[in-house]
Amino acid sequence: MTAEVINGKELVGEIREEIKNEVHQLVQQGTQPGLAVVLVGDDPASAVYVRNKAKACEEAGMYSEVHRLPAETSEEEVLSLIAKLNADERIHGILVQSPPPKHIDEQKVIDAIDPSKDVDCFHPVNVGNLVLGKEGFLPCTPAGVIEILKRKGVEIKGKHAVVIGRSHIVGKPMAMLLLREDATVTVCHSRTSNMAEITSQADILVVAVGRAKLVGKEHVKPGAVVIDVGMNRDENGKLCGDVDFEAVKETAGLITPVPGCVGPMTITMLLQNTLEAARKTGKSSVRV
Ligand SMILES: Nc1nc(=O)c2c([nH]1)NC[C@@H]1CN(c3ccc(C(=O)N[C@@H](CCC(=O)O)C(=O)O)cc3)C=[N+]21
């Protein structure tokens, strides 16, 4: 058996087209959704992501601004920029690229973001609402994974979903979202023993660890849906996920490629959240 490889470009293109139409309508009502991205330091990978986010905003008809701050910027200066963006009526979404340089307390910066502008869904208020199942922003990468599953017609309810990884950004909120969709959820991590035994029971396997080729054929039940959130460089400097794609492709039923699926879908969910934030705050933006 050979897996169907999900065409991420097609999926993402479809959703971005929908978002673009909704942005257009909102602009006609007098509000242009606006996103501010804050990048502290000069990590080259972060610079690429930030550029991709700004470009996606523009293509969707949104306003975007990128604040590039030198690596030695003080925590105080970042906090004062956040305060300015919180008060800026043109800005509906604020994202501080993670991770910041070590001298900056990331949690402190996140706590300073107005929760109604926290399009990453990293603020404790939004994380709390997510866990309680209340309305609010959904974290971009996990929300993107759910979107992929739904658009591909994968049933989640009653299925065994296994998440590998327990980060605050992906693993934990991913488990929460799958639970909200009525999956039976197991979370594996670096201290899990007999991981293959557990993951090979999964109907849906989401891998978010950050280690190239961690997941092989022995980890995957024949016919399972495998979602690869990893973003690594292999020995030749080529982008690759956490899943040994060539091996697992033979076993899985449905699989996501890296690059070209979860990454662009994450950015799409960021656009979605920014649009929602603009809708909620209503009339405060640029008048056209
Ligand atoms: N506050 C914050 N929010 C984030 O959402 C956030 C962050 N910090 N820090 C870093 C991670 C990483 N991340 C990616 C998003 C898109 C791609 C993406 O589009 N990847 C392309 C490839 C891009 C390339 O060529 O390098 C793909 O998978 O096809 C990758 C990585 C968001 N993150």
Automatic annotation (TrEMBL):
Keywords: Amino-acid biosynthesis, Histidine biosynthesis, Hydrolase, Methionine biosynthesis, Multifunctional enzyme, NADP, One-carbon metabolism, Oxidoreductase, Purine biosynthesis. Signal peptide: none annotated. Residues 139-280 form the Tetrahydrofolate dehydrogenase/cyclohydrolase NAD(P)-binding domain. InterPro entries: Aminoacid_DH-like_N_sf, NAD(P)-bd_dom_sf, THF_DH/CycHdrlase, THF_DH/CycHdrlase_cat_dom, THF_DH/CycHdrlase_NAD-bd_dom. GO terms for cellular component: cytosol. Belongs to the tetrahydrofolate dehydrogenase/cyclohydrolase family. This is Bifunctional protein FolD. It comes from Paenibacillus aurantius.
